[in-house]
Known about the structure:
The longest helix is centred in the middle third of the chain and has 34 residues, at 91-124. With 301 residues, the protein is mostly helical. Helix 6 runs antiparallel to helix 12. The two termini are 51 Å apart. Helix content is 78%, strand content 0%. It folds into two domains: 2-81; 85-300, Orthogonal Bundle (MetI-like fold).
Amino acid sequence: xxxxxTESRTGTVPGAKGxxxxxxxxxxxxxxxxxxxxxxxxxxxxLVPTVGLLLSSFRGPRDxxxxxxxxxxxxxxxxxxxxxxxLLENASIxxxxxxxxxxxxxxxxxxxxxxxxxxxxxxxxxxPGRDWWFLGVVGLLVVPVQVALLPIARLYGEVGLFGSVxxxxxxxxxxxxPFAVFLLRNFFAxxxxxxxxxxxxxxxxxxxxxxxxxxxxxGPAIASLGIFQFLWVWNDMLVALIFTDASNQxxxxxxxxxxxxxxxxxxxxxxxxxxxxxVPLAVFFAFQRQFVSGxxxxxxx
Length: 301
């Protein structure tokens, strides 16, 4: 009886300890070797299409038509660099790669710079209607891109920007700024006020304070934003398909045009698609440390 009263007072239930031990063992198993095995399998399946595209880009047209890319594993003699030589001779693909750079880099830089300035203003400057303006920026996050395609196309036609690289850059900057301002404002708001006040007491103005204190502390968030914006613009096809002409189209539109015009030129499409894939991967791996730091800092805050 005394043991039963003790269990009733402590709230324990007979057998609960055993069930908890089983649950703990399952959690440890899932967080150990089992979870790692699942992640490895998922990574392998994710890499298979990339590896297939890489091997296909080095195979000749006849080999591509006769068998799958996996036959290279048993017949490495199929590999050749003629596809890339042919690609460099294709003016539409090479020009489109340069056009993609001219679109992606300014779109990313302008979005990051303007978003950082606006984020600092919303976080630490007092001006009339600041909260209402910020709510308006947040509200723009839910506006889909498709809603603005026709009105912006008509506006570009009136001002002479339709079909130009500048028009595509402005469109990407306009739709990238709401997220940029929202992200950076929330990150900058976590900076200790005492640190900013100390810099002001030392005679630092707002621009110097922004450049010397806020930007270095916000480096991880800025790097994360830059990666997101660059990947979005580089991989975009809808906006470029509507607002660019044949001389200014990026690589995504050029590859789609090649598929539509020529059904059997996979020997050119494969290396072109792989090059368009390699660039964003290289950017991500180059800044992955800053990207992870920004994500983890946002999670902690």
